[in-house]
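Ticket #4471: structure export looks truncated?
Reporter: QA, pipeline team
Priority: medium

Steps to reproduce: submit the single chain below to the structure queue and open the exported record.
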Amino acid sequence: MQRRAALLVRNSGSIALDDDTEEALRNISSELVLTREDAIRYIVREWLEKNTYLPVHDLDEDGDVDGNG
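Actual output as written to the record:
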């Protein structure tokens, strides 16, 4: 299922959405300064992480920081 979703997202130009969804996607894309395809990738990735299909990359805010600063 994830592989099929990934292929659909890769070819997201061919995904047909209803008018309300397209309008919402345009609004999100403009707010995030993303292309339609990038917005769809972002939304799908967030959904997959929130539903535990993908691991969430948590930041360790209490740990030591490496590097200059």
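Status: closed, not a bug. The export was complete when the record was re-opened. Leaving a note from the reviewer for reference: The two ends are 43 Å apart (CA to CA).
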